[in-house]
Amino acid sequence: MAALEGLGVLVTRPEPQAGPLARRLATEGARVYRLPAIELLPREDRAGLRAALGPIDRFHWIVFVSANAVRFGAALLEGRRDLKLAAVGPATAAALNHAGYRVALVPQGGFDSEHLLASPEFRHVQGQRVLIVRGDTGRELLADELTARGAEVAYAEVYERRCARPVPGAVAAIEAEWGQGAVDVVTATSGELLRCLYEILSPAGRALLARAALLVGGPRIGAVARQIGITGPLIVASRPDDDGLVDALLEWRRGGGPA
Fold it and tell me: Which of 116, 68, 60 is nearest to 88 (CA)?
């Protein structure tokens, strides 16, 4: 029997990121449901953004904080291969590699701003210019700490996030099956995504979410879950990529999760 046979998993990532995770889960035997909770849209004024940044080679480092930042922001690199690129984690690095770029720095031991800041390359940045490529919202820790270390930091906010607007009936259909016991685990790969999921569900759906097991990409997301009243088990992945999420779910199942 497949390791996740009979386990119902609700994947809430935006398209197209939901696809690879859904396929991995299905390969392990899970029964997969998809309800994207966030939509990602390219920034409309991309020409204005590019002009405001000036020559891209004036930056000593260009940091991509996610694979989505690469998806919407790789064009800023203008095909140049002589730029120093940093990626917050391996999925982001893989996206840059796929786009044809070599990554000079991926933090060791963890996939977040804290580990990137702990890298030797970022300990002494006095007088350096750093560009952070991201969406329209996000943590300020990286920019704040680099600025405190003497760097000149700029943002390239290359896409916008908004809570999804599911097609009519989609939420009700998921909630109906969920209410019959079809969904055992809900995935959440960011706090913002989790808040959006809560927003698009009906009161009955929120009650189901509050009791569900939640597969999260890190402890900060688990803290958001508790803030919004989710009291079910937390399955915290050691890393937020597909492999990390699936490995955490497999370990939880082996340890006594629902059969």
Answer: 116
CATH fold, domain 8-37+164-254, is Rossmann fold (3.40.50)
* Distances, alpha carbon 52 to alpha carbons 2, 96, 140, 151, 229, in Å: 52, 23, 20, 18, 42
Q: Strand pairing of 129-135 and 38-42? A: unpaired
Q: How many CB atoms lie within 10 A of CB 189?
A: 27
The confidence score (pLDDT) of residue 109 equals 78
Instruction: Give yes or no for a contact between 3 and 225, defined as CB atoms under 8 angstroms apart.
Output: no
Query: What CATH number labels 41-162?
Result: 3.40.50.10090
Length of the chain: 259
Residue appearing with tokens 């963890």:
110
Task: Look up the pTM and report it.
Answer: 0.85
Q: What is the pLDDT of residue 50?
A: 87
| 62-89 per-position pLDDT tens digit | 999 999 999 999 999 999 999 999 999 8
Which residue from 81, 80, 79, 104 is spatially nearest to 93, judged by alpha carbons? 104
8-37+164-254 and 41-162 have identical folds: yes
What ranges do the domains of the chain cover? 8-37+164-254, 41-162
